[in-house]
Amino acid sequence: MVDERAERIRKFIRPLRVEPGTTVTLPADFDPRYKAHILKKKDGVALLRTGIELLADYQRRLAAQDTYGVLVCLQALDAGGKDGIIRHVMSGVNPQGVQVNSFKVPSAEELDHDYLWRYACRLPARGNIGIFNRSHYEEVLVVRVHPENLDRQKLPPEAKRKGVWNRRYNEINEWERYLTDNGYRLVKLFLNISREEQRARFLKRIDVPERNWKFSAADVREREHWDEYQHAFSKMLSATSTRWAPWYVIPADRKWFARICAGAVLAHTLIDIDPRYPTVSAEERRALGAVARRLESEAPEGAPADPYAMSIASAEAGSGKPKKAQKSERAGKTENA
Ligand code: ATP
Ligand code: MG
Quick one: which atom of ligand 1 is closest to the CA of 142? Predict the structure, then answer.
């Protein structure tokens, strides 16, 4: 059942994956309006709900196992829908296990360090899901489109010489390989919107008063560099989609479809990790049994020795079906009233 579900998800996300070693040219290679076989938004919403439940279950196991961490890198042009992805896809998970970090123009302190420093400082702990709202990839996107950013980075001349972008791609690939070797899994999502859809979303931000706060004249100025960004994204996708950390290009013109795709890629990663609840040894189980007997002996007059075990037993008796009763496994279990 799980394998079947995993296989369905794998097939669904395959067309979004940038195969390592291939050359991507945007906008030709990925259609922002692609929506697979899902024809209606209503079917998509049901699918997203199922995906969110699945993510919540896997996140609990990821946290309990405390061995692997997941880093989601979200990249998009302005109005690409990063905030909506975070809000919807993560809506079912325990907030304690998820940290969102948004990366803006670097501060003076950040510029005083190597360019990967600020990202390394905000990596999630094991057992957690970290979301980078913009990520280390800005270092080969906005910095490439506006090279004056490179001058602000206080680099020695040799670090700025010809070939800087290829060097950065290699450095990023190596950093991600190091993270993978150390138990991190990267989920790299590029939300691919069309120029026309961005125009429509900017206008909506102007037309709807409640959205005015989202509008930024700087975003419209940045739009003038559309072709340069498409070029920078194409180079980035081609050079940094690796076996250990592949890129997924999410068709983002339809927000509802983008959310399903992002959820599916994250679910695929978690299924692949297959985190398990830690099991206890026979000796630990015996020790738990001894503690349980002591707690049962403290039951006040008239109270069941073990209220939980009693509720399980009466539910079983009521439905005639055995319930998942972790309790019955316990060694040295005493009979309940
Ligand atoms: P939203 O507009 O939805 O709140 P946002 O991610 O666009 O989210 P902004 O504060 O509008 O956030 O913009 C952040 C800006 O910081 C972007 O223009 C981005 O290109 C810029 N930025 C991010 N990283 C770097 C970097 N390393 N060097 C220079 N600029 C950067
Ligand atoms: Mg912005």
Answer: 20
